[in-house]
Known about the structure:
Layout: H1 23-55, H2 58-87, H3 89-108, H4 113-141, H5 144-158, H6 160-175, H7 180-196, H8 213-236, H9 241-267, H10 281-310, H11 316-322, H12 325-344, H13 347-363, H14 378-401, H15 409-429, H16 431-435, H17 441-465, H18 469-475
Amino acid sequence: xxxxxxxxxxDLPGGTAPLHDDRRLVLVVAVLASFVVGLDSSVVNVALPAxxxxxxxxxxxxxxxxxxxxxxxxxxxxxxxxxxDLFGRVRIITWGLVxxxxxxxxxxxxxxxxxxxxxxxxxxxxxxxxxxxxxxxIVAAYRGAAQAKAIGSWTAWSSAxxxxxxxxxxxxxxxxxxxxxxxxxxxPIVVTIPLVRRISSEVRGGPHARVDVVxxxxxxxxxxxxxxxxxxxxxxxxxxxVVVGALVLGGVALGAFVPWxxxxxxTSGAPLVPLGLFRARDFAVGNLATLSIYGALGMxxxxxxxxxxxxxxxxxxxxxxxxxxxxxxxxxxxxTIGALAGRFGPRWFMAAGPTIAAVGALLMLLAGDDPAGYWxxxxxxxxxxxxxxxxMVTPLTSAVLGSVPQSQAGAGSAVNNAVxxxxxxxxxxxxxxxxxxxxxVTGLHRAMVVMAVLLLAxxxxxxxxxxxxxxxxxxxxx
Length: 478
């Protein structure tokens, strides 16, 4: 039984009700908005071989089809967190849905790999606007154990996109062509926008919220430069001026990012990343665990999907079905795990989950050239990966966002989402190095070892660093 949440600290339009009065509608909107982003992510992987066949470009185009989206999403999600605090979560979600829908149409009509990559980058802008605001609405509307349970429900129902995506996307790719998958991702937008407009209240971070433009530029250039260098090295070589220049530029921008954020904090008090959030132990440790764990997950779904189609010869729709187990486990367990984590604390769930997933990754080392090996290697491996994700993801989200003030929920959600997306895009960018330029059995095995190491690192960080809320509260001064 849930308890009423206190009124959100927000600038509400005159005469509107507090956000917790809209809690059911808020949860539905957050699920549908996240469904749009999740559906796109899940359908694209099964379409990569078909995109490569029609547009050419090899593994590099496949990597950029994934990473162009993740570069803008991962870097601009930080800006979106500030925008949601400044203009309101509801308004920013609406903007994001519109941008995402337009970009989806552009992807569907792309005449070349270059145009597709640009359109995917624009999709990332829309996804960046949607992602932190959707979760921040839940954080504003729910408190305590009810919040953990709501986040679990959001995780579970949002995962329906991951279930529908690979299967429906595979059928669409095999039936009428890969372009139609982008039309498919635009459909939920038509349903979601009218519901967003029905939310009677708005949440903002306060009258002093601003947008750190220089910080945003440094983030985009830094992340984009590093990813550009990592992906293009496969085609141009490490000694190429383009690769070296991109890596140096990206490194310099990232190196300048933290000093600039400290300067903005001292002067205007409105940095892109409120570094003060990292004084909260669970926020800092949770984001460090996110970096490791989501880097591993980004690698596994990219590599396994390509392996099933390009090495074992699975049709796109069969590959979609074959990669469903993690999503089914997430859907089945997330709400229950969220409730348990709200009761007992997130620490040991966050330690156990990545460990279970690491065992699943190592099981996939049994995969060989025979597609029949799916039943004793990839399938049980993916089931364990899914069980691990379900055990970890809701407690991780609750630990990170539960440690920040509600007025900074947009920024806190944005930072955590940015860390997750950037971790995934970097590991996808490194896939060319791990796979040695082409997918195969040896490359799959190397990728699974890398994944297991990253997952175990996340488990250790969580076990050592996370402090459960009861202990955190007892250690805090009155």
